[in-house]
Amino acid sequence: MTEVLVSGLTKRYGSKLALHGLDLQIAPGEFVTLLGPSGCGKTTTLRCLAGLERPTTGTITMGGRAVVDTERGVFVPADKRKVGMVFQSYALWPHMSVSENVAYPLKVARLGSQDRQQRVHEMLDAVGLAGYEKRQVTALSGGQQQRVALARALAARPGIIFYDEPLSNLDSKLRYQLGQQVRSLHDQFETTSVYVTHDQEEAITLSDRIVVMNEGEIMQDGSPAELFDRPNSAYVADFMGFQNILPGEVVGVDNGIADVKIDETSLVVSGTTTTRATLGDRVNVAFRAAHIRVHADATSDPGRFEGIVERTTYLGNATNLLIRADGLPLRVRLETSDLRIDEMPAVGDRLGFSVNPARAVVIDVIQREEPQSDEFLTTKTSALVAPR
Ligand SMILES: Nc1ncnc2c1ncn2[C@@H]1O[C@H](COP(=O)(O)OP(=O)(O)OP(=O)(O)O)[C@@H](O)[C@H]1O
Ligand SMILES: [Mg+2]
User: Fold this and answer.
1) Which end of the chain is more exposed for a tag (fewer CB within 10 A), N or C?
2) Distance between CA atoms of 90 and 87, rounded to whole angstroms?
């Protein structure tokens, strides 16, 4: 179980700055996922950690040992870092059998042939491929090849394993099964894991901690629940699947809940504040489609607003509604388990809606006036994002 400390990591490709000075701490035994859209620098970060790429500046310490220190000219290459790697493309040696592939890192580590054989058996057993020793890897399915790659990565008992979108080439059911296997191997062999994906669901189900990246920077770093429930910016909220992100102004604050008047409407939505917000502040309020309650009657109780159903999309277990409330398009997800079949909302229906304030977040706070002291400063204020 290797600890990793990264400080001020940058990587430049020609004129392109791919990493903007990352700081990252990974505890021994942690399963950390780098999550973000294409081109945000996930692979570059992973390759710098693994020793496949030379950072432009920064330091990386692994298990107490400096493996990168650009100022002192320290660079320890991948094969001297005791790491395992699993790639999207499997990267197996096609001319070797299954057992030869798994045995290869053991040969490099100079394990005796008896021990090697025993370890290969143990590893193939762990990934559910006992009996496949003699098969050519080209005669295996994609899922089986990736399990060989997992066995190979773990065979030499590295303290840390790097995964770069290892499940992306597999179908969704297999992706789920193999993902669970990756996590249980992590627990069983007590490694540290750094995992790259652009799939938020995969990140949430596998990780102890998720690091959301954007254009070479870390936007937020927290537990799956923190990121899922309490994104700190419109960027992270959007990436974590908040379907409604609306700009507005704070018109009331009480006990960690801010009331936000949505721009160009008379709607007021209340949400939980994660950074201090005061009257008149510009903010975004974000909430999930599933966290809007639907009421059959369109009364004018506080916190309740009226909307007209513009579109319905039947999903089997749920129905997505696009509603328009005071000119504003909102996305609502209704679980069908809560409804009788003859109760399904239809286009043109006028219904009441309310947002659960505990489930809505008020983010991207921009103070109305100049901050009076440091405590008023927010950690990160990103540009306001218009609803999609
Ligand atoms: N060898 C290279 N030469 C030049 N630019 C590169 C190189 N490798 C990566 N980049 C650039 O660095 C940025 C980050 O790339 P990176 O591969 O780390 O992204 P990523 O988050 O892994 O994306 P994806 O999800 O598509 O794999 C991109 O703008 C990319 O074009
Ligand atoms: Mg990549």
Assistant:
1) C
2) 5
Torsion on CA atoms 367, 369, 375, 379, rounded to nearest 10: 30
Encode pLDDT of 331-343 as tens digits.
Answer: 999 988 767 777 7
Domains of the chain with CATH codes = 4-229 (3.40.50.300), 240-376 (2.40.50.140)
Q: Quickly tell me which residue has 């992973």 as its tokens.
A: 46
At CA 194, angle to CA 202 and CA 169, rounded to 5? 45
Closest ligand 1 atom number to CA of residue 216: 14
User: What would the pLDDT profile of 217-237 be if each residue is shown by its tens digit?
Assistant: 999 999 999 999 999 999 999
DSSP result, 330-383: EEEEEEGGGS-GGG---TT-EEEEEE-TTT-EEEEEE-SS--SSGGG--S--PP
DSSP 267: -
Ligand 1 in contact with 359 (CB < 6 A)?
no
> Does the beta carbon of 38 lie inside 6 Å of ligand 1?
yes
User: Is the beta carbon of 16 within 6 A of some atom in ligand 1?
Assistant: yes
**DSSP calls for 106-126:** HHHTT--HHHHHHHHHHHHHH
Confidence at residue 385, expressed as pLDDT on a 0 to 100 scale = 46
Among protein residues, the one whose CA lies closest to atom 31 of ligand 1: 39
Non-local (6+) Cβ contacts of 305 within 8 A are 267, 325, 326, 352, 353, 354
Whose alpha carbon is nearest atom 12 of ligand 1? 18
| Distance (Å, whole) CA 383 – CA 380 | 10
- What global pTM score does this model have? 0.89
